[in-house]
Amino acid sequence: MINQYEVPAYIEDNIPALKKALHQFPAVFHIYDTVTCFGDYTSKQLREQNFLVAGKCLQLAAKLYERGNEIVKGAIVRVFVPEVCRVPLPDAVSRIRMYSLIPDTLYHFYIQQQLSSHGNR
Description:
By secondary structure, the chain is mainly α.
């Protein structure tokens, strides 16, 4: 089981581009800062339509959720998923592409977040 102290290294091992960003703050002690950084990076990749990297990030988030302790799972659901949901999906093609990238493990949370976000607008 992955605990909150292992998450920064796990992300760095899988997404080397985040190494410098994760070292700008004491992320090893702040799971929510770490997951916010990871979510921001993933959202940026989605907005830039870099679907290969974004897909890798989404798969990594799913692994963190599946293998993480309750704190890690909570951070993925409360921080990562809402951040990814903020990415604008201007047309049906974008929505289909995005839905195809969301791993099964996170799909329910993504749809739930989408529904609650659109209900508040």
